[in-house]
Amino acid sequence: MKAQSVIRRAVAAAFVAGSFAFGAAWAGPMDTAQSLDLTGSGNTVTGTVTGTVVGGSAVVFSFWANPTDVIEIDIDTNSTIDTLASAHGAGPTFTVERVQDDSSVFPFDPGSVSELDPLIQNWVPLSSGMHYVAVTMSPDRVSDSNQFLNLGGSGSGTFTLNVTCTRASTDPAAPPPCQQGTTTTSDSTDTPPPPPPPSDPTPPVDQTTGGDTTTPPATDVKYVNIDIRPNSRALVRLNPKWNAVIPVAILSGPGFNVRDVDASKLTFGHSGEEASLRNCNKQYTRWHHRHHHQALVCYFENAKAGFELGDEEGILKGVLKDGTPIEGRAMLRVLPEKRHYGHQHGRGHDERAENDRRGRR
């Protein structure tokens, strides 16, 4: 009987290792990422590339980005495969700044015929440097520090990656969209490729005859970075019926000081318009475990956030003290999940839910 018990445990361990192995950093594609050329004129550049992804692996692309950029990452497939996209900051940490499994947009964006195609909107990089987009078969993903999480993704198929980068700054010293400027805030050792030549060269302005030298206006909304349930590396899972409090950290970054936020006018939830604010910490903190930017942590009532089954992002909206609107998004999963893949929430999930119910002050 004892021998049979040992065998059963060994078989179970082998199954888990084969299906859900993860943890060790791999000699992965961050080091061999394919450079994605972004071209265009004015304040917007775009790039498109096709690839093939296989379960248990990742395909990664790289391009230069700045905190003055607002980026959209759009994955298009033929709907027979389920892909996941993650946006990573510069090395050596390769921090996951945004991740998306399914699109939350309907009607689907041009080129997509299924909600299984990820769409990351309004991503604002935390620093200047080489950034990365990793494409995997869901639920596989690439985590911080270039760790590949093999969570049971299977199958294979082709995809098209579309990246749109918009310069959202009125500062004349800000670099062109997704190009390296004269200075950088990144500690990365990555060497960027030379910027592509302009596709529509504009002759220099004749100063003697005048010309339009004004800086184009910034986008109406200031997009910011948020972290739902900060300091937790696990995917945030919520049930609309929970009597819980959801902590959300608003992160400062280059060109954005969280002290400028009007904390009394924040909304958060399914659409970002939900009046779910409970309270904010009176003191600012360096809460976030991944970087040292100052953060404002606020707490929102789950029952008023209006989340629906299928939601994969929480949206925060508000205004700065000067009236400028702000918006931030971060990934979550509303229970019951669409696909379980054998996951068990376990004690850790229950403890996090209980902490959220109590709220943090």
List keywords for this structure.
361 residues, mainly beta, five-stranded mixed sheet, disordered N terminus, disordered C terminus
Sheet with the most strands: spatial strand order:
16-19-20-13-15-18-17
> Strand share of the residues?
25-35%
Mean pLDDT: 77
Outline = globular
From the alpha carbons, calculate the radius of gyration and give it in angstroms. Answer: 22 Å
The major beta sheet can be summarized as: 7 strands, mixed
Instruction: Count the beta strands.
Output: 21
Order of helices and strands: HEEEEEEEEEEEEEEEEEEEEEH
Question: How many helices does DSSP assign?
Answer: 2
Distance between the termini: 52 Å
User: Which consecutive residue ranges, at least 5 long each, have pLDDT under 50?
Assistant: 1-24, 183-189, 191-218, 337-350, 356-361
Roughly how much helix do the residues carry, as a percent range?
under 10%
Helix and strand composition category: mainly beta
